[in-house]
Specification:
The protein is 37% helix and 22% strand. The chain is of the alpha+beta class and 501 residues long. Among the domains are: 102 residues, Arc Repressor Mutant, subunit A (Orthogonal Bundle), CATH 1.10.10; 186 residues, 2-Layer Sandwich (BirA Bifunctional Protein, domain 2). Helix 11 links the parallel strand 9 and strand 10. The radius of gyration is 34 Å and the shape is flat.
């Protein structure tokens, strides 16, 4: 039997009685581990070697974990400082103990959360008491960190999971491959195996000399394991945004552009949002510490103020609430891209306003929301409006049905809703393809006269704001908006997610 040199070296190094790992074979033969692995799989396919795989979980200390090995866990340091402060005999000030423990920044919260969890003591009304019988030296988490730091292994999975949740260790899986000689492999060695000089590729010298006719070419195992190579690709949200733009342009819309940081006048006042509305407080908006915006048409400011104070048209009544031009000029990150619609509808952005007109944008907005599976602090909004004579809710619903049909979504539902700036108004809902959960995907309506009148628009305008991320959730099956972007994004999901066409 003739075998390539690398295969012969691996075959001769293998044992019929003991499993040897690829690394051990590599050390024995002087070959690279990846060369050994390739040769081993080739020999396995020839029936000369048996290859086994064992997957184990390994834990490695993070930078924070190594820091705590040197300095001690925050809760341990807090406990020892409390003992020194006399907390064994009675409650002591938590601030005093924190100072003694030399804790700073996030370490304070970490210590206060883990000290009672481990039974080291209790915290009540800003005072701390410790258990004199507690033994921080016997803490399994601290012991596990020390063991890992010394190169040892920890078998307690619950302790490892806890340390991983605290960001002190990284858990990963390691696959170890080992080989043994089969009976056929033993027989081949006993009968004798010769080394065959093999060539991996045809070279100009081989062709010129004619030696190519006499050499033995290496066989390529196209089924052998190989490292995955992931090429770059456009993010699924960006691809969804591009698809949205293609659809809306195909429906006759033009794209709007405008600033991310804008005055409250364009963001809310033009939209007939009262200045004392809860959504306009500092709790819900990202105000910027910059100079007020001066470049706003004075005549438009006067008309918008009139609409807020006294209403617009024969039946207008207004809010009869305080209205401040100073507040209107303050700058904040836009909470919706309707600020662009106001700029365009007023003619300030230089748009063509002879009806009919259709405009849209797919831009980022910023809201001080609570993070959850369907909300982020910043996200993309699909803004759009149509200006024409005699528009109705049926026109608006038909536009949505045609738009979402382009993404394979045909079960959109409409529910009546209240907005200060549209009448009638309704929200849009769709079903998540994986969970079946009903998800709100947008808000819409016909702009009130209090919005269009001050802008100088004398015909109907239907408008909407749709959530790009929630559209992506419906089309890709993502169950959590944080899977799409942010620190919790699922990289494998992003690599494989496809956009509906």
């Amino acid at each position: 039997m003739r075998l390539p040199e690398r295969q012969l070296a691996v075959l001769e190094a293998a044992s019929a009685t003991d499993e040897l790992t690829m690394d051990e074979i590599a050390t024995e033969t002087g070959l690279k581990p990846e060369t050994v692995t390739g040769a081993a799989f080739d020999l396995r396919d020839e029936g000369l070697l048996a290859v086994t795989e064992t997957t184990t979980e390994i834990a490695e200390l993070t930078d924070e974990g190594r820091e705590y090995v040197a300095e001690g866990l925050p809760e341990t340091r807090l406990y020892r400082a409390a003992v020194d402060a006399g907390a064994v005999d009675g409650a002591v000030s938590m601030g005093e103990v924190i100072g003694r423990a030399d804790l700073a920044g996030p370490e304070v919260d970490i210590a206060l959360a883990n000290l009672p969890r481990k039974g080291f003591g209790t915290i009540d009304s800003g005072e701390l008491t410790v258990d004199p019988d507690a033994d921080p030296d016997a803490d399994p988490e601290a012991a596990a960190l020390a063991t890992l730091s010394d190169g040892g292994s920890v078998d307690d999975e619950s302790v490892l999971d806890r340390l991983a949740s605290r960001g002190l260790v990284d858990l990963a899986e390691r696959t170890t491959r080992a080989v043994t000689l089969t009976d056929a492999g033993v027989d081949a060695l006993m009968e004798g195996v010769e080394a065959a000089e093999t060539v991996g590729q045809v070279t100009p010298d081989l062709l010129a000399s004619g030696e190519w006719a006499d050499v033995e070419f290496a066989e390529y195992n196209v089924e052998a394991d190989a490292p995955a190579v992931e090429g770059g690709r456009k993010h699924v949200l960006r691809r969804t945004a591009d698809r949205v733009k293609d659809v809306l342009v195909g429906m006759g819309f033009q794209e709007m552009e405008g600033p991310h940081a804008d005055s409250d006048f364009w963001i809310n006042d033009c939209l007939f949002m009262p200045q004392d509305h809860p959504a306009r407080t500092h709790w819900d908006r990202f105000a910027l510490d910059v100079e007020p915006m001066e470049d706003i048409p004075e005549a438009l400011i006067d008309r918008v103020e009139t609409a807020h104070r006294d209403g617009w048209g024969e039946d207008g009544d207004g809010y009869h609430s305080p209205w401040s031009e100073e507040f209107a000029r303050e700058v904040a990150l836009r909470g919706h891209t309707t600020s662009l619609s106001m700029r365009y509808l007023s003619g300030y952005a230089g748009a063509e306003l002879e009806p009919p007109q259709r405009y849209f944008s797919v831009e980022k907005v910023y809201r001080n929301d609570t993070l959850d599976p369907t909300h982020l602090l910043e996200f993309f909004q699909i803004e759009g409006w149509v200006m024409a004579e005699d528009l109705s809710v049926r026109d608006l619903m038909g536009t949505f049905e045609e738009f979402y049909r382009q993404f394979g979504i045909t079960d959109i539902r409409f529910k009546p809703h209240y907005n200060p700036y549209t009448e009638p108004s309704f929200e849009l809902f769709g079903d998540h393809p994986e969970t079946g959960e009903e998800i709100e995907i947008g808000n819409s309506g016909i702009f009130r006269e209090e919005v269009t009148g001050p802008l100088g628009v004398d015909c109907d305008v239907m408008a909407w704001g749709l959530a790009l991320e929630r559209l992506a959730m419906l089309t890709t099956g993502a169950e959590d908006i944080r899977d799409l972007h942010g620190t919790l994004a699922d990289i494998d999901f992003l690599r494989n997610a496809e956009v509906s066409y």
